[in-house]
Amino acid sequence: MSNCSGGCATESCLEELLNIAVFGIGNILLSDDGVGVHTLNRLKEEYDLPEYVELIDGGTKGLDLLPFLEERDKVMIIDAANFNKEPGTIGTVEGEKIPAFLSKKLSVHQIGLPDLLFAAKLTNIFPPEICLIGIQPESMATSVEMSDVVSKGVEPLLEKVIERLKAWGVEVVRKNSRIGK
Questions:
Q1: pTM of the model
Q2: Which domains are assigned to the chain?
Q3: Parallel, antiparallel, or unpaired for β 47-48 and 173-174?
């Protein structure tokens, strides 16, 4: 076991200190709502991340994701988000500014991100650092295809995700950059 007191510069030391989860949230059957899952899949396919970063396809699992928030130091959520901006606009919301409330439901299948975060606060497992990186959707129609504007926004959204991971001290390496080394 590494001695990490007084600062940490090595990856093995970071692994002892950090426990990060990145969630891709949304319904891939509702056009732009699936952008979080699609972006997470791109991250999985194109980049190598350290073992202390867990990539989680949260889909539409709602409260079933609660155990995955437990004992996390940092949590990132990638999702379609209503910023009241033009479709394709990318935004970031931090910590307590991310909506966390319990809302009236007609069905247990309507439980969303605000309900999940409210439950995390209620059960005292809300992560110390959390951010939502999202994109303003254009369409939530029934379709497995995203709108053109959101499809074009996946690359800059992925870049924002990588930028935040690097700011958290995570080494993010493009998979094809290791070829020939």
A1: 0.83
A2: 11-170 (3.40.50.1450)
A3: antiparallel
